[in-house]
Write a structure and sequence with these properties.
Shape: globular
Helix content: 25-40%
Radius of gyration: 18 Å
Strand order of the largest sheet: 6-7-8-3-9-10
Largest sheet: 6 strands, mixed
Strand content: 25-35%
Order of helices and strands: EEEHEEHEHHHEHEHEEH
CATH architecture: 3-Layer(aba) Sandwich
Length: about 250
C-alpha cells in the first residue's frame, strides 16, 4: 500500500496557564492512497481540531503530520499557503461559492489563481463536471442552484486541482436527507472512480456509513476504529450507531 498521510503522536493544546485544555492527545494513524476515512465523535472530542491541524489552519503543539512525505507540522509559515493550494482540497458545510461568478468560474478559480493554461483548465473542467454530472449547471449562478447542486459544485472545485487529499468538514450539515444522500453518492464517485483520498468529519451515522473506515475520537484520542470490510452500508450504519451509543456521543439517526 502507498501511505499518503501519516499522523504521529499529535497533541494540541489551547489556552495557557490554568486554562490549558488538551484538544488532541497523542493521535496517531495513517491513510493510504485512495482511502475514504470518516472521523466521528461527540462535540468537543477533537475531530474539528484534528481536521484543522491536517489542513494547516492550526499548528499541532507536538507530533508530526506527513503528507506525501512532507512534515507539514514543521513547514515554514511562508510555504504553507502554496502547499495548501497545491496538495489539499476543501469541502465545507457552507458551500463558499462566490455569488457573482458562474458555477464554471467558481470551479476553475483555483486553477486561475495558479495561472493554469486555458486549454488545460477547460479540459479539467469538462472532466470533473462530467464525472459529477453538473455539466448542465456550469453557466448558472450559485443562487440558481439547489443546496445539493451547490455542494456538488463545491466538490468539483475541490477536485479540479487534483489534490493529494480532500478534507471535508461536515459536508452534509446544511443539506436535507435527500441531498445528503446525493452528496455522499458523489463522494463515492470521487473516491472509487476518480481515486480521491478523502478525510471527512461528520456527526451523521448515515454519512459515516459511506466511508471505508471510521475513526472514533473521545477526549482527543482515537477511542475506536471501524473498517468496512465486507459489510454492506446498512450494516456499517448500524455498527456506527452501536459504537456511538457506547462512546456516549450524539449521532444523527435517519
Amino acid at each position: 500500500m502507498n501511505t499518503l498521510l501519516e499522523i504521529k503522536n499529535v497533541t494540541k493544546y489551547f489556552g495557557s496557564g490554568d486554562a490549558v485544555s488538551k484538544a488532541l492527545n497523542g493521535v496517531s494513524f495513517t491513510m493510504e492512497l485512495g482511502e475514504f476515512t470518516a472521523v466521528m465523535g461527540a462535540s468537543g472530542s477533537g475531530k474539528s481540531t484534528l481536521l484543522n491541524v491536517i489542513a494547516t489552519i492550526d499548528r499541532p503543539s507536538s507530533g508530526s503530520i506527513a503528507l506525501e512525505g512532507s512534515d507539514i507540522a514543521k513547514m515554514p509559515e511562508q510555504d504553507l499557503a502554496a502547499f495548501r493550494r497545491d496538495h489539499l482540497g476543501f469541502i465545507f458545510q457552507e458551500y463558499n461559492l462566490l455569488d457573482t461568478l458562474t458555477v464554471a468560474e467558481n470551479i476553475v478559480l483555483p486553477l486561475n489563481l495558479r495561472k493554469c493554461p486555458v486549454r488545460e483548465t477547460e479540459q479539467r473542467l469538462e472532466k470533473v463536471a462530467s464525472s459529477l454530472e453538473i455539466t448542465d449547471q456550469l453557466s448558472k449562478f450559485p443562487r440558481q442552484l439547489s443546496g445539493g447542486q451547490r455542494q456538488r459544485a463545491a466538490c468539483a472545485r475541490a477536485l479540479i486541482t487534483e489534490p493529494a487529499l480532500i478534507l471535508a468538514d461536515e459536508p452534509t450539515g446544511a443539506l436535507d436527507s435527500a441531498n445528503s444522500k446525493s452528496l455522499m453518492q458523489t463522494f463515492t464517485v470521487m473516491n472509487r472512480q476518480l481515486g480521491s483520498t478523502i478525510l471527512m468529519v461528520t456527526h451523521d451515522a448515515v454519512v459515516g456509513s459511506y466511508a471505508s473506515r471510521v475513526l472514533f475520537l473521545k477526549d482527543g484520542k482515537i477511542w475506536n476504529e471501524l473498517h468496512r470490510g465486507e459489510r454492506t452500508r446498512q450494516a456499517m450504519y448500524h455498527e456506527i450507531l452501536n459504537i456511538m451509543a457506547v462512546l456516549g456521543g450524539e449521532a444523527d439517526v435517519r
